[in-house]
Amino acid sequence: MPAFSKIALFSSLIAYVSAQQAGSVTAETHPGLTSSVCTRSGTTNTCTTKSTKVVIDGNWRWLRNNQANQYNNCYTGNSFDATLCPSNTACAQNCALEGSDYSGTYGITTSGNALTLKFVTRSSTTNVGSRVYLMDTDTSYNMFNFMDSNSQEFAFDVDVSNMPCGVNAALYTVEMKANGGLNTANNKAGAKFGTGYCDAQCPHDLKFIEGSGNVEGWTPSSTDSNAGFGKAGACCNEMDIWEANSISNAYTPHPCKNIVGVSRCEDPVTCGDGSNRYAGVCDKDGCDFNPYRQGNHDFYGPGKTVDTTKKITVITQFIKDSSSNLVEIRRAWVQNNQVILQSKNEWAGIGDYNSITDDYCVKQKSVFGDNSYFVSPGGGLVEMGKSLARGHVLALSIWADHAAHLLWLNSPYPVDKDPSLPGVARGTCSTTSGDPNELINSAPNSSVTYSNIKVGQLCSTFPSGVTIPDSLCGGYIPPSGKFLQAPIRIP
């Protein structure tokens, strides 16, 4: 998820972790969250509503002894029960994942096409953060293919007015299995219980990967009393469509090399751990576009061109060339019934790009002094496009960062570099902000609302009544400067 340091530590102050057996103590009822699929014919847009729903990730659930009439925890604090989980296989067989109280325990509510996630929810327990997935049915995730047919776009509305420094509202897609890995090894829970997660950070904090436990070699976290790290990681391609709070935002493709779907890694080199960051199978940095980082400090934030005190419509376009390769990822905005084009890069040596292309990434990495893993052989947008064509699951979350305090998104980072250097400053937040343990007390009421999720042909998902520049509706513009598709103007 994050471009620089998502050893994604989704903190919870209660013993809710992922599991493999399907529990029967608490019924699992998925909150409804409608979404839309849109098409365009001539000058007419048609959007069809789908009765989709959401499911919370297994990382937040009660993991209990699966034996009849037994209710003791398989995982408490940041440790597994040694009797129930002596090995990876035994833990997956002995432990059951239970149903959830979405609003009461996790602060997750839906209404029509809107989803609200609260940062801290206090009831008889205290829960911090959450991650949910969009579902087609009660047993299957909704699969998105942004490479289907001609170039595609994805749109949603978001309210980040209540998202301060250090708290991340993330909407992104990962190459998970539609059924959540049901019946893989000992996984009897599947998508119904939110199993099967993976991302480009090859996260080690998952308790189960592909139906097998991650118990062996488990080490409790030194900064989070409810998290830990196993020997194995779960790697897969990831498209960060939206990582943001009220101060900064970024979108970032994270391709992986030579893997399809979920890939379990068990050695530091393959996982890209520590000093092996750029030797692993996935690009953990990715290639990001953050308007502030690209030199425009007046574009996004409270009272700025994109005003984060108000609801925002965010449109992301996935542009293919004549060979059906992904060659560009564009960003556009709508606010106050006006289309706002993405701001342009302002650093010398990169060019006036306002979208992500391989050429932009080559120049950005060079000027910023970042590692060029993204554009090395076997990576880049072409590889990202291949993954998107296989289908991705949509994840929506709110979280805080125990590893780097979210400085990579909204502050000068790395902290030992001069903020005036290209690419160092990513937002106006202090380098001392973002400690999750402090945010739980200082900003517990932080929340994000996502709504009006749409996918469809270019220019089919924009709100009615707005006029869109032809450059957003005409597809890929090759070096010849001519559109591969006829430009369209929305009336």
From TrEMBL:
Organism, scientific name: Arthrobotrys musiformis
Pfam families assigned: Glyco_hydro_7
InterPro entries: ConA-like_dom_sf (IPR013320), Glyco_hydro_7 (IPR001722), Glyco_hydro_7_sf (IPR037019)
Signal peptide: 1-19
Protein's UniProt keywords contain Hydrolase: yes
EC supergroup of this enzyme: hydrolase
Alphabetic keyword roster: Carbohydrate metabolism, Cellulose degradation, Glycosidase, Hydrolase, Polysaccharide degradation, Signal
GO biological process, one term: cellulose catabolic process
Catalysed reaction, written as an equation: Hydrolysis of (1->4)-beta-D-glucosidic linkages in cellulose and cellotetraose, releasing cellobiose from the non-reducing ends of the chains
Alphabetized GO MF terms: cellulose 1,4-beta-cellobiosidase activity
Listed EC numbers: 3.2.1.-
Name under which the protein is recorded: Glucanase
Family: Belongs to the glycosyl hydrolase 7 (cellulase C) family.
Keyword Hydrolase in record: yes
